[in-house]
Amino acid sequence: MYKKIGYFHHLDQDGTLLSFNEIELNLPKDNKKSIEIVKEVKKENLIKKYFNHLNSGITPLVLNPEIPDSKTDSLLNVLEKDSNSYSSLSHITCSSGTTSHNGPIKTFSFPIQRPLSNSRAHYASLQVNEPIKVLFPMPLTHSFGVVIGMLGTVEMGHSLYTFQETPRNDVLLKVIDDQEIDLLYLTPTLTRLLLKHLKRKKISNSKKIKISIGAAHIYKSEILELMKHFPNAQIFYTYGLSEVGPRVSTLDCGTLDKNQMSNIEEEVLPIGRPLNGVELQIKDKLLHVKSIYTNTNIDQEVFFNTMDEASSDSKNTFLRGRTDNTINFAGVNIYPQEMEPIINRILELSSVLIAMPSKLYGEIPVLVIEATKENENDFSTKDFIDKLSLEVSTKIHPQRIVFLRNFPRTSMGKIKRKNIQSLIS
Q1: Which are the contacts of 98, defined by CB distance < 8 A and separation ≥ 6?
Q2: Bridge partners of 370?
Q3: pLDDT by residue (tens digit) across 151-195?
Q4: Which residues have CB under 8 Å from 357's CB, separation 6+?
Q5: Which tens digit of pLDDT belongs to each residue from 86-113?
Q6: Phi, psi of 242 (to 5 degrees)
Q7: Distance separating the N- and C-terminal Cα atoms of the chain
Q8: 104 with 200: CB under 8 angstroms?
Q9: Residue 246's closest CA among 119, 124, 112, 86?
């Protein structure tokens, strides 16, 4: 019988301990073949409900509480029709880019042992094989938060420290010292904000700590800068996909004195070594992943096409972009092919959503509108944003709007996105 315990510490925005929960995962033999949606604002309630469902033989699906109930009910109806096909207790996660618009939410189902094993393999790649203190200043509603933040804590017996909202940088640093944190999780955006604070305040922390950064691109120069402020920290960069685990690979960047990046000539970091149970393959310049942790719709013996453009040298695999024009904004995937029909309907004009580089977020979504001078003069940013907010989350709104008189097109009338990107850059 599977029985594990994890320890969850909930902090306020000043880093003071609000509550503590000892959470047991005791997987039953009985699978009720039913699904319950977990949609909670408070992280403490989210964690309790999630594990209560699993312990009762119910498959949980964690959703962002901002998603409208009408959309939630529609999703549950679809999932319940297939619930009898679940041969074992499962864990369901969502594609983040499909929870923020009026279209259907895309879900992935995993037999519960797969994400549990994926979390253990991820921690092994961080050279963590025993219970430690983990600081997780990020949401728990996405696949990484559920699998690594929640399931991983119980699987490994960790003590997880989390905030209701993202804390200030000074509070983050205070908690690292006060709670003697062993592992800090960051997104690239949180890393860049922390670096600004560290440089401005001229702070250096000599604590021996592990720092794991994932969810989007980060650059070699940024890791080296972080090492200067945490000279004894061992820093990792991780890559993953919701469909296959979610964790896929880990790059050990080393420490300031034992820098493991000397053989990396590029500014872009490679994605590192695949986890145990994962294989990487580049075919037709696209990264394919074979994983024993994958969702039930993907054969464990088949290489899954990630749609990430990739290249490799003798030692490293590098991501070069997305073939489907996906924009990774602060760790959230934005899919232009799903956003553009909504935007074009609101505008009654042609437009494209493209990615532009950002030092803070990695990429930002930029809306480019094909418009006459008269159209541009009549355009109201406020009216447009108000209408867009009724249909999609503000988290995936365009961060910049640009007008072009005519879009470059092929002889068949297809819009040349890369040309537009060059024009506005």
Answers
A1: 104, 105, 106, 335, 338
A2: 404
A3: 999 999 999 999 999 999 999 999 999 999 999 999 888 898 899
A4: 363
A5: 667 888 888 655 555 456 678 899 999 9
A6: -55, -35
A7: 57
A8: no
A9: 119
